[in-house]
Amino acid sequence: NAGVMQNPRHLVRRRGQEARLRCSPMKGHSHVYWYRQLPEEGLKFMVYLQKENIIDESGMPKERFSAEFPKEGPSILRIQQVVRGDSAAYFCASSPRGGADVSTIQYFGAGTRLSVL
Amino acid sequence: EDQVTQSPEALRLQEGESSSLNCSYTVSGLRGLFWYRQDPGKGPEFLFTLYSAGEEKEKERLKATLTKKESFLHITAPKPEDSATYLCAVTSGSRLTFGEGTQLTVNP
After folding, report:
1. How many CB atoms are closer than 10 A to CB A79?
2. Are the beta carbons of B102 and B35 closer than 8 angstroms?
């Protein structure tokens, strides 16, 4: 059973370009979470999605960042007009259940390391 | 707002030297406390989840315990392959709130 798959593993962008990060959840998982890990900082929640729905985007910066989880295909985290401060490791996690279910465990992918030149 | 504080930030042990990592938390309605292990360049790997004070879980050389205010990760007779960053996280809903981790180094 494949784990959470993220690609690309490494992404280099110049300031002002767009970055697209993809995440395929574990088989049977319909809940996806995105976290960001800035250098020398802990993991910070960004957004929680189910298929075709954004459930909680309270951790997402208001501008330039968006996320989707379409009916078919992977979840996408999109960063428009990247700046140097966006350089970080972006992790995706998935779970079979979410919300109020206390038994939910989030399983993480290997991350995408974004470098903005 | 949920908060997690881990200590120490870094810990260096000799192989076989047992110790404990601390995770203090503040959360409005704990639905779960999680321990993850993270190796350099990799994503967090799930270790344990604890739900109520008094609960304990074990896996090989690791044992996690939970009180109403903190959790401990006890490492018994560690080996060099236990070297990693150990992350603690809590949830009161769907998101995880992480501490900044304890970087453990076990020397042979």
Report:
1. 22
2. no
Q: Which residue of B has its CA nearest to A92?
A: B43
A36: confidence class by pLDDT, cuts 50, 70, 90: very high
| CB within 8 Å: A48 and B96 | no
Which backbone phi and psi does A90 adopt, to 5 degrees? -110, 120
Q: Which amino acid is at A25?
A: P
Cβ neighbours of A44 in B, within 8 Å: 98
Task: Confirm if A114 and A83 have CB atoms less than 8 A apart.
Answer: no
How far CA A30 is from CA of A21, A24, A47, A74, in Å, comes to 18, 10, 14, 11
Question: Nearest Cβ partner of B96 from A31, A106, A111?
Answer: A106
- To the nearest whole number, what is the mean pLDDT of chain A? 93
Q: What is the pLDDT of residue A1?
A: 54
A51-94: pLDDT as tens digits:
999 999 999 999 999 999 999 999 999 999 999 999 999 999 99
What is the rounded distance in angstroms from the CA atom of residue B64 to the CA atom of residue B46? 13
Q: Which residues contact A40 (CB under 8 A, 6 or more apart)?
A: none
Does A2 score more than 90 pLDDT? no
> Average pLDDT of B29-41?
93
Q: Between chains, do A105 and B46 touch, taking CB under 8 Å as contact?
A: yes
CB contact under 8 A, A45 and B100: no
Calculate how close chain B gets to A83, using CA atoms only, in Å: 22
Contact list in B for residue A56 (CB cut-off 8 A) is 93-95
